[in-house]
Amino acid sequence: NFMMMQKFEYKTIEITASVGLSKITIYTDHVDKIFSELGEQGWELVTSVPANYVGMMSFKVYYTFKRVIR
Fold first, then answer.
1. What is the DSSP string of the chain?
2. Which has fewest Cβ within 10 Å: 10, 40, 50, 65?
């Protein structure tokens, strides 16, 4: 019984927070819209990684999605 292995393609996007004097804001409605659009295209979120800066807060997050290649 031969089983075909699935193949995937990957997409990484960067989300940057808005930086104010006393706070950092990520506009979740905007992020939800992006993620929903990607989900409709068959993309599934597999990981998120903050951009790390030594001694500083991270203002960017990288999100990686995958989908099956048909």
1. ---PPP-EEEEEEEEE-EE-SS-EE--HHHHHHHHHHHHHTT-EEEEEEEPPBTTB---EEEEEEEEE--
2. 40
Give the Cα separation of 60 and 51 in Å (integer): 5
Task: Return the C-alpha torsion angle 66, 70, 30, 47, nearest 10.
Answer: -10
Question: For each of the chain's 70 residues, which pLDDT tens digit applies?
Answer: 567 789 999 999 998 887 766 666 777 888 999 999 999 999 999 999 988 665 566 688 899 999 999 8
Both tokens of 69, joined, read 């290649």
CA gap 6, 25 in Å, rounded:
38
